[in-house]
Amino acid sequence: MAYRAEYMWIDGSEPTREIRSKTKVLADGAEPGTWGFDGSSTNQADGDNSDVVLNPVFQCPDPIRGGDDVLVLCETLLPADMSPHPTNTRAIAAASLAKYADQEPVFGLEQEYTLINPATGWPAGFPPNGFPAPQGPYYCGVGALKIHGRDLIEEHTSACIAAGLAISGTNAEVMPGQWEFQIGPVDTVTVGDHLWVARYLLFRLAENHGVEVSIEAKPMPGDWNGAGMHTNFSTKAMREGPYEHIVAACEAMGALGKPEQHIRAYGVGIEDRLTGAHETQRYDQFSYGVSDRGASIRIPWQVAKEGKGYIEDRRPNANADPYVVSALVTDTICGALA
Asked: Where in the chain are all domains bearing CATH 3.10.20.70?
């Protein structure tokens, strides 16, 4: 007897990283070990020296195939010395967590995405050669005129639960055809592992529905919301209080040079999304405030009331690399609070 292991890794695509996968058939009882791939086909190597190593780092049941089949998320290594490949951003997140583990950093990521009709190239729910009614009734809406793609979303949520991922919720978003799922609360590395696998499951299940999934930051120009990956973060001190730790975290994110550093790492097309409209602060300005979805950093009202909790960085794009985001936020806030 045998089972299948779906090996997954993050490629070197520019400007937006993508997840790749291939299947290995293993004998029952055999553990998924290191493997490899042609890096010249994924923008990770030249053709005359093309091998890249796949090193398993996270494994879970495969909810699509079922049975004993598994999903195996891998980091990429250089074969010469088994060091992290230059595109291996997980290694950066792991280093950040190791450095600041004593502060117990915890993340919750809100992955927004847009379902695209392949026939029209427009978001699901947009009529051919036209526009739906303005934004307003779609967010967390119910009904066939407001909601498009719910069958896929329900299937994806069930798949994430069956895989043991830390999925904590889903909802329809502000633009027609736009949805969100949340991963967390988990640590700096685990949040990236689980979010990348959840992305894989979403893209893979969308194949069965004949729908394309876009994580572009601004899939529709004009008076429509963009797609983000709002990043909720706390340390043990922030969760326990007092409120000064919350303020200190916000101040650390706004310290000299930090806003520009974060914006550069928060995904492609950020200038199109962070315009100051559609519940965003401008990309070239920094602010924080209680209950303010027009700020760079939102402090939830209950955090201000209780004097402890977490903050929400509203700037990362839907197409950002979660490992890069989690590492940078960990380094910035934990480094300042150490």
From this structure: 2-87
pLDDT digit string, tens, across residues 181-230:
999 999 999 999 999 999 999 999 999 999 999 999 999 998 899 999 99
CATH 3.30.590.10 in the chain, residues? Answer: 96-337
Distance CA 192, CA 201 (A): 14
Complete DSSP assignment for 55-103: EEEEEEE-TTT-TT-EEEEEEEE-TTT-PBPTT-HHHHHHHHHHHHGGG
Stretches where the chain sits below pLDDT 70 are none
Residue 69 vs residues 8, 20, 74, 125: alpha-carbon distances, Å: 14, 18, 16, 35
Q: Which CATH superfamily is domain 96-337 in?
A: Glutamine synthetase/guanido kinase, catalytic domain (3.30.590.10)
Task: Provide the pLDDT for residue 134.
Answer: 87
**Tell me: the pLDDT tens digits for 143-154?**
998 999 999 999
Domain 2-87 belongs in CATH node 3.40.50.300 = no
Model confidence pTM above 0.85? yes
Spatial distance between the Cα atoms of 283 and 266, rounded to a whole number of angstroms: 10
